[in-house]
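Here is the promised in-class demo. Please do not try to memorize the tokens; focus on the logic of going from shape to residues.
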């Protein structure tokens, strides 16, 4: 008899954080026990990651246990025999830690810690406090060379923002002085400005009482469409701002056109750009050679990131780059390919910029597109929408704290403020963990499949990740020569989180950051039937008779110890960036029970439990077909004459690629 405990070492998923909520009902909006749990979980997680990074686990496990137990929100801490640590918080949430050290040594004979990609700590998404829907604005200066291209590209920017869930004016507004004054009131989400800009300097003040911060200094500025008679400006409503150098006059043929200096925005924004993404598609808008920068001013007023050109740029070319930028930022997927299905996921602003830079689209003949962030250290990032980069599904854990519901764990970019997790457009009632880069949510049943979406700010939705159901069957013909024979049959189904990604939009696999480079399917339910019998005399003259027959359900994690009948199907999807190289590994096993009657040669009779365990002992790597159907196949196992399974099919097959480079297939 072969026991297969080791085959199921990943029935407890291998890395932190897996959380199960024991509270019933929705998480309250107001801070409470779960809010405190999230803070404590983050502290424990950071401490644990430091230990793993330094390769001190499990040697330094005691220090982690002491630290975790010192946290006020922690109820119990337990170190398992497999070196997994389990924390239970006062709120009932469980937190699993397993460093999962690799067995291979590097050049220095040191073991590497197989931990997740570094977490991001984003500030949040562009948001407002008085509206449920964040506004965005697109302003385009009228006329000029290449106006048709500029208009078309700007409309694509508008379409992308509306697709992402922003309120955008139906037509681009004319960027007058008054319009710029209202940025903090009306346009503090995402701002795209397509127009004119420049850089210049003011002479040092001759009047010692002139305390202008621009005197004797260079700065960059933005043109408006407001014109006044420069010779008579003292009689205009802008005289005070002009005298204070908040507003200056343009040059040459634009000598009567008003331009706005950084001082203008300091005066009128009043911190009114919280977490905004600003894209200035104008000349010299991000000229790093000036003393007083527009980008600095916007960031000081709350903007998260500012994009702009460092020199003169052709508006039509700049507009085309902007259209691509927002297309990918919002996950619209319409600029270069109108028939991409499903739509691409959105990306963070820096991921989009880096991809465009690789394509050479951030460099024009005289200018480069660059950016400035609120901070230049750490992993802070920003995005227009939530982003799911990966995730995994945890089947119902009936043995853990009495929790019956399955859960999902999502990694990506979600912002610090809790929103919703929606399955088939219905919100899940129980979110047990919400962090900027990770969410754990409970599912109300163990059968529903469909699209998982994260929603923030009431209407900004992430890309969808599909919770996919698979189903199949397996049959064993049992034959232990000279002893017993029989059959085992099983039908099963279960779920796994999967997502398709495309090479053109997603770029290299490193853009998909998350806890895992694979997705694990496990059979959740089904039925198992067996009938095995036989009789023989052993070498000592003892007579044996085996009778094993019955039926039982297929439940997850059923084969965690011998003595309990059950069946397991595990499929590990290794989703390579090139779908033609994606692979899977399949493990099938069954455990059945019965009674063995032994009569000795002296005539004494005893009965004892009989357990038979049959299945694959190694997970063999196979190529994954484009339709994600695991082909029917067969294998051998100890005591099996034949061992075969039917096709294991998804409930909804992903759309197969139209060409070799059309899709990525990867979850992280």
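The designed amino acids, position by position:
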């Amino acid at each position: 008899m072969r026991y297969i405990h080791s085959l199921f070492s990943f029935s407890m998923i291998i890395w932190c954080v897996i959380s199960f909520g024991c509270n019933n009902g929705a998480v309250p909006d107001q801070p409470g026990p779960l809010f405190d749990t999230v803070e404590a979980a983050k502290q424990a997680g950071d401490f644990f990651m430091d230990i793993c990074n330094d390769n001190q686990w499990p040697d330094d496990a005691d220090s982690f246990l002491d630290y975790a137990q010192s946290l006020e929100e922690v109820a119990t801490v337990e170190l398992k025999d497999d070196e997994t640590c389990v924390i239970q918080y006062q709120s009932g949430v469980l937190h699993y830690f397993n460093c999962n050290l690799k067995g291979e040594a590097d050049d220095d004979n040191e073991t590497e810690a197989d931990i997740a990609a570094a977490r991001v700590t984003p500030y949040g998404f562009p948001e407002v406090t008085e509206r449920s829907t964040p506004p965005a604005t697109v302003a385009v200066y009228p006329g000029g060379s290449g106006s048709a291209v500029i208009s078309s590209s700007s409309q694509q920017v508008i379409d992308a923002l509306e697709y992402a869930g922003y309120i955008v004016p139906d037509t681009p507004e004319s960027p007058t002085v008054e319009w710029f004054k209202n940025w903090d009131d009306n346009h503090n989400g995402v701002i795209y400005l397509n127009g004119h800009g420049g850089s210049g300097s003011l002479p040092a003040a001759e009047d010692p009482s002139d305390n202008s911060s621009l005197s004797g200094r260079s700065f960059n500025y933005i043109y408006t469409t407001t014109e006044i008679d420069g010779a008579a400006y003292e009689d205009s409503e802008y005289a005070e701002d002009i005298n204070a150098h908040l507003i200056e006059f343009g040059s040459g043929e634009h000598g009567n056109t008003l331009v706005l200096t950084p001082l203008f925005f300091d005066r009128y924004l009043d911190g009114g750009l919280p977490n905004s993404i600003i894209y200035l598609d104008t000349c010299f808008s991000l000229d790093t050679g000036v003393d007083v920068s527009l980008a600095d001013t916007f960031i000081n007023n709350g903007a998260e990131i500012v994009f702009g050109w460092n020199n003169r740029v052709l508006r039509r070319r700049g507009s085309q780059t902007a259209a691509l930028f927002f297309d990918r930022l919002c996950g619209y997927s319409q600029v270069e390919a109108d028939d991409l299905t499903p739509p691409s996921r959105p990306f963070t602003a820096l991921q989009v910029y880096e991809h465009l830079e690789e394509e050479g689209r951030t460099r024009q003949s005289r200018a480069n597109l660059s950016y400035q962030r609120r901070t230049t250290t750490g992993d802070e990032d920003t995005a227009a929408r939530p982003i799911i980069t990966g995730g995994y599904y945890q089947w119902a854990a009936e043995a853990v704290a009495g929790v019956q519901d399955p859960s999902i764990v999502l990694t990506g970019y979600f912002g610090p403020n809790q929103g919703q997790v929606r399955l088939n457009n219905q919100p899940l009632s129980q979110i047990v963990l919400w962090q900027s880069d990770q969410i754990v949510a409970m599912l109300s049943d163990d059968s529903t499949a469909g699209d998982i979406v994260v929603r923030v700010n009431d209407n900004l939705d992430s890309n969808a990740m599909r919770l996919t159901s698979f189903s199949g069957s397996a049959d064993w013909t049992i034959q232990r020569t000279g002893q017993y024979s029989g059959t085992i049959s099983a039908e099963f189904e279960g779920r796994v989180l999967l997502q398709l990604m495309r090479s053109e939009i997603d770029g290299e696999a490193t853009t998909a950051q998350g806890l895992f480079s694979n997705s694990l399917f496990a059979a959740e339910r089904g039925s198992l039937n067996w009938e095995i019998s036989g009789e023989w005399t052993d070498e000592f003259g003892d007579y044996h008779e085996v009778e094993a027959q019955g039926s039982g359900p297929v439940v997850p994690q059923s084969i965690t110890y011998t003595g309990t009948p059950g069946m397991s199907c595990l499929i590990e999807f290794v989703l390579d960036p090139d779908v033609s190289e994606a692979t899977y590994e399949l493990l099938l096993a069954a455990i059945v029970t019965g009674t063995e009657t032994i009569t000795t040669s002296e005539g004494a009779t005893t009965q004892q439990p009989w357990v038979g365990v049959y299945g694959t002992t190694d997970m063999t790597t196979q190529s994954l077909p484009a339709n994600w159907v695991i082909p029917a196949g067969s294998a051998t196992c100890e005591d099996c004459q034949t061992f075969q399974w039917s096709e294991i099919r998804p409930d909804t097959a992903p759309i197969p690629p139209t060409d070799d480079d059309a899709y990525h297939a990867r979850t992280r």
